[in-house]
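Dear Dr. H.,

I hope your travels went smoothly. While you were away I took the liberty of generating a structure for the chain from your last submission, since the lab meeting agenda had it listed for discussion. I wanted you to have the full record in hand beforehand rather than looking at slides cold. The sequence, exactly as received, is reproduced here:
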Amino acid sequence: MKKIKIEIKWAFIFIATLLVWMLLEKFSGLHSTHIDKHQYLTMLFMIPAILVYVFALRDKKKNDYNGQMSYMQGFVSGMIISAIVTVFSPLTQWIISYVITPEYFPNVIEYSVKTGYYKSLEEAQAYFNYSNYAAQSTIWALIMGAITSAIVAIFTKSKKSTNTNNTI
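The corresponding predicted structure, in token form, is as follows:
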């Protein structure tokens, strides 16, 4: 457990960041009056999501690897974070759907039918519901976590050190 203490900490920081982001979306009207802009502005969450991974891998590099971390060590650390976030995704989605913004599904269903995105109320309800979102968030947490880990590990790995000791 001590070996992955940093990953556990950053996984929960990631989850907290997501929940705060959802609160910001709700209070800015993206789940109600400005729902027409939601699908575009929600993608901005990629910025804090990537930053969390950068800070996490820098923390891992500094505190567990004494400033020297390989690409694979960074990638594995990122994947551990992703796995933890994935395991908690259904609970996180439940908190979002039932505690933070229970009005989101009815609002997005109404909007998607009104704009013709879905032809019927039943089609919209089949897509916009907790069960579907819980499944999607679980799958996407793992996929996007893997991609983010792979990319961030490139930038947080240590440069190969050169031997500056020029003794003959």
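Two observations you may find useful: The chain has one domain: 2-156. The first helix runs from residue 5 to 27.

With kind regards,
E. W.
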